[in-house]
Amino acid sequence: MENFIVSARKYRPDTFQTVVGQASITSTLKNAIKNRQLAHAYLFCGPRGVGKTTCARIFAKTINCQNLTAEVEPCNECESCQAFNSNRSYNIHELDAASNNSVDDIRNLTDQVRIPPQIGHYSIYIIDEVHMLSQAAFNAFLKTLEEPPKHAIFILATTEKHKIIPTILSRCQIFDFNRIKVSDIAGHLGYVAKSEAVEIESEALNVVAQKADGAMRDALSIFDQIVSFSGKSITYKDVISNLNVLDYDYYFRLIDLFLKNDIPGSLMLFNEILDHGFDGHHFISGLSTHIRDLLVCKDPITVQLLEVGGEIKEKYKTQAVACEQEFLFGALGISNECDMQYKASQNKRLLIELNLIKMAQLTLKKK
Ligand SMILES: [Zn+2]
């Protein structure tokens, strides 16, 4: 494979501004630096792949930058920044608690805490997956956290906030990282694609972003996988076949058939989907999502809950206009019920067909 890119590493943000989808957190961190109101301990919580460790590293670098920019960003040029960027800084210490969770590991770290930094003002200790520390390690760490030396700053990161004991929580400033929005992920992927001279349809970007479920790291690795498979010109069709995603066009067509009370057409379309090798359960849960998306389009307040971008958004809006709210409520109830019954059903195909028939009759009663 020629010039295979690992985009997650290559496009790892190195300034606050380049962090995607966490604007409120990065601006709070910048303000803390600007106003010199640094806490001794931070806890970054949130799902995997949303930028916790990345933000911790940028924060650490910025705190020690000798030549902050006007926007409170690291200069990436001073001695301290360069040491950070080439992973040779003595001011940053990282511990992955998932694989180093013993008392000895923590003692090694806390022993270093006493030593003041040689360059810069602060030594930063990042402990990733901090919930993995053993009970004894937690206790050993607590002592340091209770009386940290002036120059020490701890940034703890976890995907499981509920596992952190209250004595630690109460000593940390807590930041909750959110899943990154589909539109933000798609936007960033578009930027990466452009930088790599990859041509990719916007609908394709959207599918990748949705598949990543809020995690930028996953989005970038899916993107790499598709580039290595399809090359530098990527269509929506390439992506859905590569990721085994059901074309949303099927759902649009199905809803149109329901509105026309076309039972044979609905059953034939379902047959076509099965013929393409898609699983029935996958189909029915996708249909529920589709109806839900139409429903949120009906109201200007909930339309922001629609997690698709660009041209597809317009398709949703158009179809939503064609659907009565009552029909959507009914169809969502039926497909959700079908989704729940699916596992227990002896004849799964019949179960889905029966429910498709029900949905196709919803608007019949009114006529
Ligand atoms: Zn600097």
Q: Could you explain the architecture of this structure?
A:
- The chain is of the alpha/beta class and 367 residues long.
- The chain folds into three domains: 155 residues, Rossmann fold (3-Layer(aba) Sandwich); 61 residues, Helicase, Ruva Protein, domain 3 (Orthogonal Bundle), CATH 1.10.8.60; 114 residues, Zinc Finger, Delta Prime, domain 3 (Up-down Bundle).
- The protein has 17 helices and seven strands.
- The strands form two sheets. Strands 2-3-4-1-5 form a five-stranded parallel β-sheet, with helices on both faces.
- Helix 8 packs across helix 9 and helix 9 crosses helix 10.
- The protein is elongated, with a radius of gyration of 25 Å.
- The model has no long low-confidence stretch (mean pLDDT 91).
- The structure holds zinc ion.
- The site of zinc ion has 9 residues, from helix 4.
Q: Round the mean pLDDT to the nearest integer and report it.
A: 91
Strand order of the largest sheet: 2-3-4-1-5
Do you know the CATH architecture of the largest domain?
A: 3-Layer(aba) Sandwich
* N-to-C CA distance: 60 Å
What's the domain count?
3
CATH superfamily of the largest domain: P-loop containing nucleotide triphosphate hydrolases
Query: Helix and strand string, N-terminal first?
Result: HHEHHEHEHEHEHEHHEHHHHHHH
Main sheet characteristics: 5 strands, parallel
Content-based structural category: alpha/beta
Fill in the CATH topology of the largest domain.
Rossmann fold
Our Rg estimate from Cα atoms comes to 25 Å
Overall shape: it is elongated
Count of DSSP H/I helices: 17
Bound molecules: zinc ion
